Amino acid sequence: MSGERKEGFVLWFTGLSGAGKTAVAVHTEQELKRRGLRVERLDGDIVRKSLTADLGFTREDRDTNIQRVAFVAKLLSRNGVAVLCSFISPYRATRDWVRQEVTNFVEVFVDVSLDEAIRRDVKGLYRKALAGEIRNFTGVDDPYEPPLNPEIRLDTDHETVEESAGKVLRWLEQQDFIPPSM
Amino acid sequence: MSGERKEGFVLWFTGLSGAGKTAVAVHTEQELKRRGLRVERLDGDIVRKSLTADLGFTREDRDTNIQRVAFVAKLLSRNGVAVLCSFISPYRATRDWVRQEVTNFVEVFVDVSLDEAIRRDVKGLYRKALAGEIRNFTGVDDPYEPPLNPEIRLDTDHETVEESAGKVLRWLEQQDFIPPSM
Prior knowledge:
Two copies of one chain form a homodimer. Chain A is an alpha/beta fold. Chain A has one domain: P-loop containing nucleotide triphosphate hydrolases (Rossmann fold), CATH 3.40.50.300. Chain A has helices at 21-34, 44-48, 59-77, 92-101, 114-120, 125-130, 161-174; strands at 9-14, 39-43, 82-86, 105-111, 152-155. Chain A has a five-stranded parallel beta sheet, sandwiched between helices. Mean pLDDT of chain A is 93; it is low at 1-5. The interface between A and B is medium-sized, with 20 and 20 residues.
């Protein structure tokens, strides 16, 4: 089947809330589908209903969340599916664990300055976290450990969603994960 | 790619503990792989580590267990994977819910008499359940609701594992889910 690889890959979008992880993932997903790949996208909103309804935001719960997602990503990626995961996933050790679990892990650091993330505050969560109304909020009272050597770094302070998605797609083309665009 | 279908299917092996669900699933899995299909097998031992470590055997926990498994089976089956799930899954309503969730649900009723399951007692669990040492044990102090209209019924009181797996494979061939054997 055209465009079909034996193995898939996992694009792991990590970054602060408001960095644009899901926006870039959705844009990338659409383009990958247009090119005929099998694609699945996972994020908190998608998995919370079925997979992680019981989990909160303590370090232990965050890790359990990622472990369940990694299990799904592992099964999909080894069966030829392109998997796009967008999770804050603030802990380096947890992301490194996912890297070892799945087929062809691609760490995509969706980098944004905290100031810009607070300025956007799409979901109104930073305001609440800064007011102390919610706890364990990454970037406010919970740490974010940036990737040391990500496959791809996006700078969403200065890039549009289209530009960021374009960087991801070009990287995938260069690494021969996907065929070049027409 | 030869032997590749656009959509996968989900073989859902349901039945009492000791019925032979996993034995038949393993045998079927090997043959499907031999024929070049993409295959994933899920059972309690496989998912407990990553997906359902927090769950016990109350009705609510059993249903949550199946919901998480169904989520995984849904994503795999719609991406062309043959998924083999063996879970007691004692409740009819839960199985009917899975049927609606996944692509090409095939209910395989692994039927065994309770007497025979107790006689086998591979894991020593019936003895403990009958002695009151463990609770909520299907067939002893928790109900098993047999399928009313399963796609496939296996009679493991009277069939070998090979015969049962053969019935599953023939059904899949007849329904054009897999190409005929050479």
